Amino acid sequence: MLSDTDGAFSREVLRLRVEYQRRRQASNLCPPAGQPVLDMELTHGETPTTSIWYEDGTPLGRYVRLFDLPGTLSGDILRLNRNLPSLPGHFEIEGDVIRPLEICPYSPDPLEDDSEDTTDLISLLPVIDIDTSSHFVKKPKYRSEITNLLCLQGGSCPGTRCSPHLIHLLGASATGDLVFEKLATRGPTLGRFSTLATYKRWLLHLLDALAAMHAAGIVHRDLRVDNLLFGEDGERLVVCDLEGRWGQRVAPEVAWEGNPEDSGWSERSDVYDVGVCVKGMVYANAPITPQVEWPVPDPLRQVVEACMQELPGARPTVGVLRDMVEAIDVAYM
Length: 333
Prior knowledge:
globular; 8 helices; 29% helix
């Protein structure tokens, strides 16, 4: 049975989830209350903007641009605190000023496919007979994913993992796909759990995986709840997608544009993303805009604040962060 403290924490988590879902369902920024979205683009700068192309039966769609100015109409819409006004045609909202637009800009070009030839690396892996009940397969895209996986399991396949909380490469299929143990994704998992004990365990698993990666000189770059997998009972968390190439551009020091070599991903940006993961765990979701405000209850609030410090040097190392999480008191009756 949970202690009164953990029970109170769980009740607060469930309250926060219900409140967010109420705002999310009521917002006409996106479906179900809003029009279907064809595309969305975030533009960074002195005043960030969010551009949305809505499906309206025309080739380009209906265009709306919102400026991220907190405490104004446009800022409140992005934070799901107010709805888009019911206006025809294309328009932009800058603060409290609404301006009609004559034309709809073209939506962003699709990302160029930069897949690499991995044939020689795949040929080195043992061939696995696929059992769909226990295996997950993935087409290889970058050489770095295979080399990172092999590095983190002793240089061989199946090898021995540096951490039980890193995805384990078992081999390749007859058609050249990577083969992994089949685990549960965040969708059917996160909503089933709400206790502080669970989050403490998951965080320690995440930090164990991250420590192993960093010790091997590998930066994940794309830590988010979509790249976390779980055992059926939620007892085990596993970090996946170890490409170490492209990733989230959420930490303030990571450039919004740039290539994998000079965008600024580092061990400290991984720590920042741990804070983002904690929020996703608590809300059992991913925000529809980066401006959505997701407070988390104590003592996880202190962990999130430490991870998401503006300056990279002000964030704790993975080791210090692990000590913070270990110190969280979770008592049982």
